[in-house]
Amino acid sequence: MSDFIIDFIVYSVLLLVLIFTIGIIYDRIRGKKWSDSSEDREEGLNRFIQGWRQRIYDLRKSWKIFRRSALAIIGLMLIITVSTISIFADDIAVEHPYRNLQDTEDLWWIDNEPRREAPFSEACDWHEQRIDIFGIKTKGYSQYVTAVSDPVRDENGSLTPFPLEIIEIKFMEDELGYELNNSLIVRHNETTFFVTDDALNVSSSSIYLTFEFQNEDMHHWWLPDGHDVCIMGTTHTGQDLFSKILYGSRVSLKIGITVAFLTVALGTIIGSISGYYGGIIDEVIMRMTDVFFAVPGLILAMAFVAALSGTTSLTMAMSSVVFLLLLFLFISLRGVISELVTGEGTDSNIITKLQTELRGLDKELQLLSKNEQKSILPLSYLTLQVSLLLFRARKILFGFIVTLFFFFSWHGGGIWPTGIGMELEKSLILVIMIFLFILITVFDKNISEGVPKKLIFDRASESFEFGNPYRFLALRTILIFVSVVLLIFVTGSSESDFILIQDFDRLWKIQAALILTGWPGYARLIRGQVLYIREMTFVEAAKSVGAPDGRIMFRHILPSAWAPLLVAFTLDIGGTILSASGLSFIGLGAEPGTSEWGILVADGRRFFPGSWWLVTFPGLAILVTTLGFNLLGDGLRDIVDPKNKR
Amino acid sequence: MKLQEFIVRRLILLIPVIMGVSIFTFAIAQIIPADPAAALCGEKCGVMGSNGLTAYESNVIRLGLDKPVWQQYLIYVTNLLDGNWGESVTFHRPVIEKLKDAAPITLEMSFLSLAMGFPMGISLGIFSAVWQDKLFDQFVRFVAIAFVSLPIFWLAMMFQYILGTQVGICDPITQALPLVPDTDGGCFPIYGRHDPTYTFPDTGTGFHLIDSWIVDEPTKFNPLTNQYEVSMSHSDMFFDTLKHLFLPCFTLAIASTGGLLRYMRASLLEVMNEDYVRTARAKGISETRVILVHAVRNALVPIVTILGFSIGGAIGGAVLTETIFAFPGMGKTAVDAIVYLDFSMIMGVTLVTAIIFLLSNLLVDISYAIVDPRVRLE
To answer: B172, B185 in Cβ contact below 8 A?
Structure first.
């Protein structure tokens, strides 16, 4: 986790330095000086301060409403606690999983620590070791045996045991579980036993020795003596339950947030299409949601899991889904983009304008002689021709760029040939991302406002004027920057903890099933909102000015519909964690043994009424996390409620 | 619009949805990697039949798998209408028979749980709305959210532990048999539909609460008197079934209480601002009467629609409780079917739950139209 933060900072600093260097060099080439834009800078600073003041004021107002509800505060505290725990799980937990080299899932080594020990049990400091009497017998004399732990997988992937410091021998058993006399094996010094001659007469070939060892690592430093060992007991495979639950919080939060986020995205897109266009599209989509609503959620999710059982990798499926999403975004935004690029009018306006200019040129050309034609042709005629072509093909170009970015960034999916090294790939992604970033900045209205309305390259050059850095501090630009860095990071490194879409991980079936089950709810919610807002006067005004559909949708309607969406999103995180753990519990999700809460409960169920802690604590963890999100969602509803806007 | 017309319209609207669900289940069966033809013949797939085809090939032809997809869908729908829902590989019997056995179990559980949860939710909602923003209201709101956040499977196991295995909470004479080793038994049995000491006659409707009054009483041979004697009377069977149903239903009831409570509270708060409540107060009617007669009755009307959704929630939740309490209902069937990729069973369960859910929603809508005639006008 801390690696992630460091990497994130490094990536963003690198990107920032790169962008600013390009900008400053570009300014120098054009002969612009820092002092030239001092007025502009002052103006930018003022605007920046004003904008943030307004934002802080709004936030304070919301906080005042939020603060009134004690329940919402409790919810917020719970979520902060759970997320802190998940971030610092490495530091709080006393036992740690190892990383499998093939995939990114945490795995737990099955060890011979005492199994299913009750909370606060002393036996947690005990260790069972197999001593091979048969081997000693064949040698014919007694010898010393070192006390060692279970083999632990090291960085190279090989298994090595490490020596333990013995405190006291507790008991010993033979192969059949009969207790043996304590004098057969004596403690020699801190790390070795001495096998006495009497032990050689034991009929079994090995002895299982249980001893207490110096186990400071397994103690919680923040608890008083005597209560600092396995505070939630140990599991049926001998691991510390508390540590497993801590690591489980990462899994659950990841599932909850990714699923809720993707569900919202899918539902919003489908719902807004349905509500905005209406007619037959609306009818078809609504009948589809009817079908989805007709089957109870859990059974529907189970059916989806079953349908996905043949798929071993989600890379292609997910890639197509994300690709479609992006494509949809670009196609809907094409109106906005074209308007921003050329300053005014819709597509057809621009094309006719270019065409008339071309025709004028043609006429001029016909008047001239052939030699004169040649001298003029390369410059103005070709530029116009190319720009017309580019403008007409911009949709395809965008699609191409997006596809390129998309397939470049995909790791381990088998799409990219293996011969090309990781570093090259990474740098390519970086270049493409910067290119995309430039495009986004160019098309950002806030940045490009007031720039002479010419063609694309003019705009680009103007927006690379770095005399006034404050203009880059608008919230939207910062958000875009952060998301770009995140994208580079998430898609570009295979060691990352935060791989959201790289074959998801083993739980991807649940995640995919929950996304497929969840979108109709959002689609209906957003459709209702869109239907309501569509009739408002400001939308009508935007339409009468001639704003394209995409612009109305993204700039006017959706920003007004975010409030119920946010509440639903928060509540859905809790709901997702619940359903995911339910699916894991019935054996459709994570593999047995992983530190997912639902699986922990399912594993504990086999020993249930006897070892109650195996079920109780993971379930409590689910309850606390879900409760936190639900309480927070309830509090947010109060903020969003227009009755409270005073 | 007349009521009959409304009902007919709603019934017609149901048809495309059910068709959509059948398309959906068919699509899932297409995606599932299991080969139905191979699953039916098992090890004998290579055996030559009398017609010169292997068992596998004749299965392919019989199931119509060599035809285009849309024809397969038509075959599937005609088979559904004929009552031929396929053969379950997991249970070694026709899907429709298994579903006929399983559906009443889930329905019994869901309805009983709603019967438990509804009064709880409504009464708590009323108190919460009446004492709005008081300490009790805050507490109840917290409880509502907590109930929604409870993992059902965990809650069920906690009940098993506390009410099913702990001694001393209940009267030791009435406590159930110690089914679980290491425990002495608790107030309620924690597994199964009835006591394992007798077999419940399966000649009735499948709803054991009803069956216990109409089927023949199970008999037992008594060697002392040398004749068969009644081992369980009708009421014994009824109370035994009720006792076994209590824990799973109580779990589901708690899960549905949260939602009902919140809706009831909101609905009642809205009604309390209406003019007729003010009029009633102005007339000098006592506050209790105003709330119970004027407000609550009107507030209950929209709650009826929530009931329809609660049934869906209860059926979904039954998947988990049935697994834990070992009830062979539809949820347990679905879980078993998915583990073995028994696609015809999965299709069957999905379709039946959808039909049950839609029909119960239809019933709810009709009753809503009866209670509130304004609905019919839309």
So the answer is: no
